[in-house]
Amino acid sequence: MTEKEQQRIIKRRLAIIQHADEVTGNVAATCRYYGISRQCFYTWLRRYEEEGEEGLRERSRRPLTSPRATHAEVVGKIIYLRSHYHQGPQKISMYLKRYHDVDISASGVWRILKKLDMSRLPTSQRYQRHASAGSATRSPCPAPRPGRRQVH
Predict the structure, then answer these.
(1) Which of 80, 79, 70, 81 is nearest to 103 (CA)?
(2) How many other CB atoms are there within 10 angstroms of residue 95's CB atom?
(3) What whole-number distance in Å separates Cα of residue 51 and Cα of residue 104?
(4) How many domains does the chain have?
C-alpha cells in the first residue's frame, strides 16, 4: 500500500472519530452512517488515543507465526536435492522419508518448489529421450524369417 493510500485511510478514520465526537455525539449513529461496526470504531479510537494519527494506519493481517510451516532445514534439503540431483517431488519425498526420517508429501514438496520458483527444471536439465544406435536401423516390423510360416 502506498503512502498516499495510507494517508487517505488515516484521514477517513480521523474524520469518523471527529464526527462521533463533535457532530452527533452518538457512536452508534455515526457507525451506522459510515457503515462500520462499533467494535471497529472503538479499536480505532483506542489506537488514536494511544498512538495518535500513526495508530490509524492500516495494519497487516498476516499472522506473526505459522506453527505448521515446514522447517528451514527441511526446505534446505529439498532445495539441495532439486538443484544437485534434479529429482522430482515424488523422489524427494521418498528420499527424505527413507534417509532423513522426514515425513512430507510429494504435493508438499511441490508447493515448496513452486513457491521458490523451482517447480520446473531448466530446459538443459530436463529429461530428453535419446535414440539408441540400434533403434535407428531397425524397422518397426521385423521381416519374416525364411522357412517359417506366417500366421495372420
Answers:
(1) 70
(2) 17
(3) 44
(4) 2
Q: What is the pTM of this model?
A: 0.50
Q: Note whether residue 110 is domain-resident.
A: yes
Q: What is the distance of C-alpha 95 from the center of its chain? A: 24
| Same domain for 76 and 48 | no
Residue 25 lies in a domain: yes
Per-residue pLDDT of the chain (152 residues; tens, 9 = 90+): 799 999 999 999 999 999 999 998 899 999 999 999 999 999 999 999 999 999 999 999 899 999 999 999 999 999 999 988 888 999 999 999 999 999 999 999 999 999 999 888 777 766 666 666 555 555 555 566 666 665 65
Give CA separation, 1 vs 8, 47, 132, 141, in Å: 11, 20, 58, 67
Distance CA 54, CA 48 (A): 8
Q: Which domain holds residue 46?
A: 3-56
